[in-house]
Amino acid sequence: MDIVDSEHVDSDHMGGASPQAIADVMLQITHIADSLGYTHGLKPSQWTALRFFAGANNSQRTVSAFADFHATTRGAASQMVEVLVGKELLVRVPVPEDRRVTQLHPTPKALELLRHDPLNDFAGVIADLPADDQYRLAETLTSLLRGLLEKRQSV
What is the pTM of this model? Predict the structure, then answer.
């Protein structure tokens, strides 16, 4: 799918790429990337949780921090964590300074699984882009994400 149609240049949209066409391609990319996440007995959201807990500092390894990051409810995040604990991919670690707080740490099994993270394939495609394109893509996607988060908060 090519969103830049050089034969039918629309003067309102540089190079003929309309915002709607760009959004359609982004949805297709999202769908394909999401479908890669159904592997090794996990769903895409579970991979996201594993990545989060593997990369978070200790103070952020909580259900609440993950819920905020994943833009979901505490209840939904808690259910996901329960599944990952049941699969022996996360372990609860009590915080000695505050017994009300429990941190979630990836198990060695989870860290091994993350070596086969399906996101690596997606990242590999991005890595094949020229460095300048990667930088511009990162800037553009960050701006889009901020805009979408602002719209979401105003609803």
Answer: 0.79
For range 63-79, the mean pLDDT: 93
Tokens 């103070």 belong to residue: 59
**Cα dist from 44 to 38, 47, 80, 82, 153, whole Å:** 6, 5, 11, 16, 24
- What angle is formed at CA 109 by the lines to CA 106 and CA 115, rounded to 5 degrees? 90
Q: What is the mean pLDDT of residues 42-65?
A: 94
Q: For residues 127 and 119, is the Cβ–Cβ distance under 8 A? A: no
pLDDT in tens, 27-40: 999 999 889 889 99
Cβ atoms within 10 Å of 122's Cβ, excluding its own? 16
Nearest alpha carbon to residue 83 among 114, 48, 116: 48
> Which spans in the chain are helix H?
19-36, 44-55, 63-70, 74-86, 108-114, 119-127, 131-154
Do the Cβ atoms of 73 and 63 come closer than 8 Å?
no
Nearest Cα to Cα of residue 41 among 94, 87, 102: 87
